Amino acid sequence: MCKALPIGFLVLTLITQAVASAEPWPAHWPLLRQGETPPETAKIELVSVVTPDILEIIVQSGFVVPGRQEPLQPTDEVELAKGKKGARMARWVWQDGKAVMLDYKAVRRDGEHLGYLVESHELVTIASHVTPGSRIDYAKAAQPATYAISSNDDPSFSAPVTPTAVHIKLKPNGCASGKTVERCKIYLKLPQALTSGKTYHITLGLQTDRTELAWTFDPRSTRSEAVHANQVGYAPDDPYKRAYLSIWLGTGGAYEYARELLGEGFELIEDKTGRTVYRGTILQTKGKDDVEFLGATTSKQDGRKPISKDYARTAVYALDFSDFNTPGVYRALVPSLGTSFPFRIDVDVWIDAFRVSMQGILSQRNGIDLPDDALGGYVTGGSSFDSRTGQKFVQLTVAPNGTAERERNDNYVELIESGQLEKFGKPVWGGYKDAGDWDAHTHHLRVADYLTALYDYFPAYFKDLPLHLPSEERQNNIPDVLLQSAIRAFDWTCTQTDTPDKAAALDLYRATGHQKYLKSFNNHGIRYGQSVEYLLLPSDATDEKTRNGCLEQVENMSRICEVAIQNAYNQLIKGGSKAYHGYLSTPETGGNGLVRLYRLRPEKKYHVALLQSVNYCLGANPDNATYTTGLGSRYPHFGLHVDAMRTGQPEPPGLTIFGPYDPSMGYLFCWWVEGYTRTGRQMLPDFKTWPVHEVYPDIGVWAPVCEYTMHQTLAGMAQHLGMLSAISPGAKPGKWAIRQHKRIP
After folding, report:
1. Domain edges within the chain
2. Rounded Cα gap, residues 635 and 627, in angstroms
């Protein structure tokens, strides 16, 4: 007899999580704070070295003034909103049990347009906007004559020197009202290498906050964009710890480092003192023009053949320190260049990261009021299904046709006008918001599947892991009637079909021990996840033929470990996925094969594979960014989160966005992006020539890049981080604090 799972505890604890950070929200470069005075010029964000003779200057060109919502004033003027050429602005809403079209209403204050009215809340939504006059001249930025470098203590620069060449890498990193702001990386190729310890005087003929500056080249205290590290860190006993060295120079193309620099090796230094604690060898993982392997095509006509291409478009080198295990905060240092962002080595690294990811899942819950401290300072608008848009969720009585946004929207109108679409009597409560918008789907059940699997694998660990819940849920005990309802539903399914759901059969067997549920389980049509769960059952409860079929699937899954040695940044990508929608930002592209594999076979090589699956996502990539809000030093701040856009708040922590996009796929969703922001035209060089790893414009409105979903990104990231926290020796699940790095340019 199998022991029944404590379902009430499981659901209460793992699907309603988060612990809040008491620290203030970190500053964001392109996104200004509410009330902050907009800069009048562009700002120099960083001066560093990416090769011994190439100086990099990063300029933030333009800023976003956040939008906001404020109460409607008695003296405000309200009028019907008009679009271009006086077109009507309206939307379908449910009113008195039927669909009606309501006009948007504009608000004027002191004779000037202020924003749009949210009638149900008597609020005015004021749009964000881009600052005027804070941009640089990009054509001028590309001219060597724009710059001069001199030094009083380096004889090679005793007289002012102009660069021999200038390379530019430009892409948007913010968006508001159809306009973008950009991060411009300027690479100055100098006639001589810079010398450590010397001070240089740099003159820029650009409209920046500093046109002249003194800069001391101190590699131990200067971050270099060429050094990439996981910004979350590692547990001391993790068997895989690795940073990377690489640079793609934009209009200057690929770069391969000289043997002399590589021969120096790399160091780990203490973040505060700069003291060296470890030295290692630099190993090349990809040559300048080598191709690499990440996944497979998704075309059945091509037979899902492997794709080999140059994803990085430059040479890449590994800085491996897997044998270093002393707790502390460190940076990876390449002595001739500079350091990475800081990262921690600590037993609680993965617990802290797991809790942040769980805050993201909590932020997507529908129909609950969240505590003020639940989301690290993000303030919700009351019940989240009623948000500050004034809209409510309703259950549709007929499914719309089409999968694309525009196709579905057109079909909604057709269904409403034909009378086929009716509203259920009550607003829908519960579930999860799908993404940055608020629609809910049945495939969000993957979240429950992934999180309850964690509890099932490590019940003692997660039982002791304190999580922050709404007050009424802390006292809630979900009754056993839920289990009985599941049994009745399964029995009903058996009367309707000869092939009842295998996953349900497994879960009910494990919960009740009744052999009848395994009778429906065989090796026909079995999925990989079900194979692992079946193999975890006592051998005397299973049959040999089915076990052999399950083992074959497990062996096929184990080959994913071979992918990491075939690409530059040692990524583990689930084959058959497209290079967008979480292909590079989410462990295993949102799958959980490795989590289940390690549970079945807790071997070192699969622990390594789990770490490889998150290392790139958490900052060991050429963008030097994590793809989850609130994790690391540089993370997304313009994801497609509609509530944050409307209220002008930094986005809630724990949202893992889709991330980098393969431009060879074409301009997917071009009507969202090209017609709205002309993003591709704002990138230099042409975005189609960029490395896949760096095609991530942080602009919010490009859905395949900047959005996220519960089932594709949030669930997968949370489960992998939770798994790593559970298998880290010495982790303390009772510890509350989340450590968020101070945001660094």
Report:
1. 68-126
2. 6
∠ CA(473), CA(478), CA(480), 5° rounding?
A: 175
Candidates 697, 621, 699, 615; CA nearest to 248 is: 621
pLDDT of 504-522, one tens digit each?
777 778 777 787 777 777 6
pTM of the model: 0.89
The DSSP secondary structure of 264-318, one letter per residue, reads T-EEEEETTT--EEEEE-EEEEE-TT--EEEEE---TTTTT-EEEE-SS-S-EEE
Q: At 186, is the secondary structure helix, strand, or coil? A: strand
Rounded distance between C-alpha atoms, residue 44 and residue 370, angstroms: 39
- Which stretches within 543-622 are classed as H helix? 544-558, 593-600, 604-615
Distances in Å between the Cα of 476 and the Cα atoms of 17, 469, 683 are 14, 11, 52
CA–CA distance, 742 with 225 (Å, rounded to integer): 18
Tokens of 367: 């129909």
Contact 708, 578 (CB under 8 A): no
Position 23 scores a pLDDT of 38
Tokens of 225: 């964009």
Q: Are 107 and 114 in contact (CB under 8 A)?
A: yes
* Six-digit token string for 710: 């519960």
Cα dihedral 529, 530, 531, 533 sign? positive
* In the block, residue with structure tokens 């159809």: 178
Phi, psi (degrees; rounded to nearest 5) at 50? -110, -20
For residue 192, which of 222, 153, 162, 152 has the smallest C-alpha distance? 162
Task: Name which of 613, 569, 563 is nearest 315 in CA terms.
Answer: 569
pLDDT at 29: 73
pLDDT tens column, 158-195: 999 999 999 999 999 998 888 889 999 999 999 999 99
Residue keyed to tokens 């699956």: 613
